[in-house]
Amino acid sequence: MGKGTLIRALLERVPELELAVSATTRRPRAGETQDVDYHFLSDAEFERRVQAGGFVEWAEYSGRRYGTLRSELDDRLRSGRPVVLEIELQGARQVRQTVPAAVQVFIAPPTLETLRLRLVGRGTDSPEDVERRLQTAADELAAQEEFAYVVVNDRLEEAVGRLEAIVRENLSAGPAGTTLSS
Ligand code: 5GP
């Protein structure tokens, strides 16, 4: 399963966590809903918000832009509610600078071959996009030692159990954002 499945399972187990809805310029996939899965923005609207300083972090991934809007984060952090960001590596590096208290977990695919099978099986990416995503995943894997925690996304039950333990340990240590990356 993908990172999204893992994170949904985490949110069920730790209901006080709130997931920030990211903005992206990619098109919605079948079954994705505006403002639930993502804030789907045009290139122009995304750019306008970049210029206005509306993003905590943003990055280009597989030819599209993705970012966390300040409006998703600020109120929650101010009131001490734990927020989960599901973001890729460049964004995680930005958050490390701007929100140093954030707990960062690298979610690793079991192998690149399982990732390939999942991407091909999902059937939403062109062969070029699959190759591009695999290359990015390989590059990201090389950066996993930057992260305080690494969870290998192998069997759902075990992976979510490890993630839950990390989150609970840090929640009891005090309020801080939690970042999930890979
Ligand atoms: P997908 O197109 O598969 O939904 O997402 C592609 C990648 O973008 C994933 O690695 C996902 O974690 C990352 N991503 C999603 N939202 C954000 C975001 O707000 N910021 C950053 N930097 N990456 C994101």
From TrEMBL:
It catalyses: GMP + ATP = GDP + ADP. The keyword Cytoplasm applies. InterPro entries: GK/Ca_channel_bsu, Guanylate_kin-like_dom, Guanylate_kinase, P-loop_NTPase. Residues 1-168 form the Guanylate kinase-like domain. PROSITE patterns: GUANYLATE_KINASE_2 (PS50052). CDD domains: GMPK (cd00071). It is found in: Cytoplasm. One of its GO terms (molecular function) is GMP kinase activity. It is an enzyme of class 2 (transferase). Its main location: cytoplasm. Its EC number is 2.7.4.8. Pfam families: Guanylate_kin. Keywords: ATP-binding, Cytoplasm, Kinase, Nucleotide-binding, Transferase. One of its GO terms (cellular component) is cytosol. The keyword Transmembrane does not apply. Belongs to the guanylate kinase family. Essential for recycling GMP and indirectly, cGMP. This is Guanylate kinase. It comes from Capillimicrobium parvum. The gene is gmk.
